[in-house]
Structure formats: C-alpha cells, structure tokens
Amino acid sequence: MASAAPPGPGRRALLVLPLLRPGIARSAPLLRVGSKNFTEQLVVGELFAQALEAAGARVERRLNLGGTAIAQRALTSGEIDLYPEYTGTGLGVVLRQPPEGDAASILARVRAGYEAEFDCTWLDPSGIDNGNALLVLPATARRHGLTTLSDLARVAPQLTLAAGNEFADRADGLPGLRRVYGMEFRRFRQFAALGLRYAALAHGQADVVNAYATDWQIAVGGYTVLRDDRGLWPPYQLAAVVRRAALRDVPGLADPLLAIGARLDNPVMQELNRQVDQDGDEPREVAARFRSAQGLG
Fold this sequence. Notes:
Blueprint: E1 30-34, H1 39-54, E2 58-62, H2 68-77, E3 82-86, H3 87-94, H4 103-118, E4 120-122, E5 132-136, H5 138-144, H6 149-155, E6 160-163, H7 174-181, E7 187-190, H8 194-202, E8 208-212, H9 216-220, E9 224-226, E10 238-243, H10 244-249, H11 254-261, H12 266-277, H13 283-293
Parallel strand pairs: 1-2, 6-7, 6-8
Antiparallel strand pairs: 3-10, 4-10, 5-8, 5-9
C-alpha cells in the first residue's frame, strides 16, 4: 500500500495507537467492522475488531448484517469500513464475473473490480479457503455409487438437497449446478442455520447438504464430500475487504488485519467454528482466546 500523506484537519489519526495515553483515547480513529450472518463471519469479524482495538482504534461492531448483498451494500454506502469476504463470492456474486481461474488470478480480478467499481481494496488473503461442497452420508454414497458431483447429477432427481438461503439464486449455487452438471433435485429445502442442514441430513429429512470447507462437522467426520470434477467452484479465500478511504485516513490499518489472517487456515477455522456451534461459546470469547493463544494480546 502506498504511504499516505500526514493527517490533516478532519483526517483520522495514524494507527500506531498502542502508544496513545488513556486521556487522549477519544482521539483514536473510529472504525466500523461488519460481518455476514453465520458463525465463521461472526468469529472473524470479532477477530478483526479486537485486533484493531488492541492497536488503539475505537471500533463499532456491525456484525451479523445478513447475506452477501447486505454486507456489500453496507460497505459501499460507508455504513461499515471493512468486513471479511471470500474471493470466489466477490468475483461470482458481487462482480458477476465468471468464477473461473486459479487463486492468484481470481484475487487479481476481484482487486481490480472492487477498486474500479466500489473504491474498496482486498487485503492479502488468509490461509482459509472456504470452498463450497456437497456432501452425503456414507450409506447414501455407497447406495448410489457417489464420489463426484457428476455421479450425484445422475441420481439427483431422487434426492433432497438442504442448503442455505442464498444457494437457490447464487450463480455458484443451484443455477451453477444446473448449468455445469445438469443437476435437478427432487426437492430443495432451505435452512438459514448451517447446523440445521446437518441435522436434516442426520434425521433423514435431506439426502445431500450444501457445506463449506471450514465446517467443523467435516473435521469430526462421518460424511462423504463429493468431488467437484467439472470445476464449478473457484477458490474462496477469506480476506478483509476495506474501503480505500479508510486505508487512506488510517495508515497502518491493514497491519492488524493481516496479522490475524496469517494465523488462520481451514483446520484452525473449523475448530473456532466448533467452539461456537458445539460448545456454545460466544464469538467474542472464542476470538479473545485465540488471540491470546497466538500472542496477539
């Protein structure tokens, strides 16, 4: 990131804020951190918020905003300064470009598109690649001979799919499965909460579940993840998306966010998600414990 000019009147203070004295804390920059409305987003949103607070910023949390469209609208309207997003989602859903290519080319395209259209920047991605997946119980896989999505397309008219609310309309959801695989299910059931999809699978209310690579349930085991053999789904690397105005006004803003991202990968995120969904811990508590364990204060 290019260095910014020294703050002038009305500009936010330099983010070297651990050195600020308590008596002048009110002069610290105010940053508004958003997130979408599922566990991983709440945890990462908290990690970002706490990292910025530890760096001396004042943070207003606007977490649990809703789906992609709502979070993106909040970003571009200036309601929030940043939130965690996934490269494949940014390319295919927000920019409506074909979600094709490797991780590097997709990151380059979302960076160029967001800067041109929204005046926003994608920071370097974390180690998380939270890609789409369809999974079934092992018994279902054995019964129908399923190892790939092409196999699933053959028997999909006999099966019920459980997925999230956005999956019906997203280009990388049902429309993409129809376009790439000719896949049509007997029934489609929507569940806003991820845990309810797994429960539907366990109780025979669904045969197939739309899942994500960082679901803690996958780490626990007991599921067959079907391979995307025709390359429908691109990489979904998680990164902070930040308004360029905030980056200009708060030099050093990116550093605490990048420090968090450098410590996140799929197994780590699966465990953090599990602590919220299975143990019942609050995202704020999970984030604070993780930061402490990582020596981040």
